[in-house]
Amino acid sequence: MATILVSDPLSERGLEILRSGGHEVAYRPGVKGDDLRAAIAPAEALIVRSGTRVTAELLAAAPALRLVGRAGVGVDNIDVAAAEARGVRVLTAAEGSTVTVAEHTFALLLALVRRIPWAHASTTAGKWERSAFQGQELAGKTLGLVGVGRIGQAVARRAAAFEMRVIGYDPRRDFEGAEWLPMDEVLAQADVLSVHVPLMEDTRGLLGRAAFAAMRTGVYVINTARGGLIDEQALLEALESGQVAGAALDVFEHEPPAGSPLLAHPRVISTPHIGASTREAQEKVSTIIAEKVVSALAKG
User: Fold this and answer.
1) Of the listed 104, 115, 196, 273, which one is catalytic?
2) 237 belongs to the catalytic site
3) Cβ atoms of 148 and 137 closer than 8 Å
4) Is 66 part of any domain?
């Protein structure tokens, strides 16, 4: 039997799986500071979402810790190098939110090209401005994917249903649903560019001034991955110059993005990092990470 600390919300089904494995579960969603350090001291496994930051300092307060499970996709809130140095294995439930994030990506894309948020605001304000909100069709347009992993491929399948041409760049070439091209060709040919790569040192600021300058004039940009992938000042400049026709952002470099001029820009749609926020996805990631933690503990 192991002691498992769950410091962020987890579904009841996920908690049942942990307990059915014979483990002692300390369910403390939202625990912070000294209370968190005290709670993690006896733990052999820790399960988090994005709310808990697993730093080197926190890991040092957990001498018995063997596993960190992230109920989600990214590990940017976990110091993976520090965990590995202490022999702590890091697990994720990346597969649990694939469909949900892909659907949110397409929801943002459709809202952007058909100008739905602005048309809604105008209509609910008592106006009837049919000629003011002419949009564009997706059929026949080229969708460029930067990152064609699990989520990128799910987006590609949905794009095919809209009769879009799909191209993509990824360091791996063994993916389905998109034509592999070098990064510069994806930037140059895309009518819509959607980003689906993890945030790491070599991807931070991936879309900066040079990348925007290489894109087609009038491109649409979607980001449901991580905020730091886009240089937000460079994006603002590209929007102001007309190089970028519109952007839809679910993620920002600093969250919440208080004071960001992008929030008030007339051609930007913003959502509060809700790409994975559906009932189905939250249940899936809770179940998947609980099963992975129980399995890993059983295998030693």
Assistant:
1) 273
2) no
3) no
4) yes
In angstroms, the CA 226 to CA 179 distance is 24
101 and 217 inside one domain: yes
Catalytic residue among 95, 226, 265, 291: 226
**Domain shared by 84 and 140, yes or no:** no
Same domain for 216 and 111, yes or no, is: yes
Tell me whether residue 129 is one of the annotated catalytic residues: no
Predicted TM-score of the model (pTM): 0.89
Q: What is the pLDDT of residues 170-216, one digit of tens each?
A: 999 989 999 999 999 999 999 999 999 988 899 999 999 999 999 99
9/99 Cα distance (integer angstroms):
21
Average pLDDT, the chain: 96
Distance, in Å, from the CA atom of 282 to the CA atom of 272, rounded to the nearest integer, reads 16
Do residues 252 and 294 both lie within one domain? no
Are 295 and 227 contained in the same domain?
A: no
Catalytic residue chosen out of the listed positions 12, 84, 255, 280: 255
Q: Are residues 25 and 115 in the same domain?
A: no
Q: How many domains does the chain have?
A: 2
pLDDT digits 0-9 by tens, 230-283: 999 999 999 999 999 999 999 999 999 999 999 999 999 999 999 999 999 999
- Residue 181 placed within a domain: yes
* Helix pair angle (150-161, 98-113), 10° resolution: 50
* Residue 43 within a domain: yes
In this structure, the answer to whether residues 66 and 158 fall within a common structural domain is: no
Residue 20, both tokens = 């059915």
Structure confidence at residue 94 (pLDDT): 85
* Catalytic status, residue 255: yes
| Residues sharing a CB contact under 8 Å with residue 54, sequence separation 6 or more, in sequence order | 46, 48, 68, 77, 78, 79, 83
Residues 101 and 245 in one domain: yes
Which structural domain, as residue segments, surrounds residue 155? Answer: 97-266
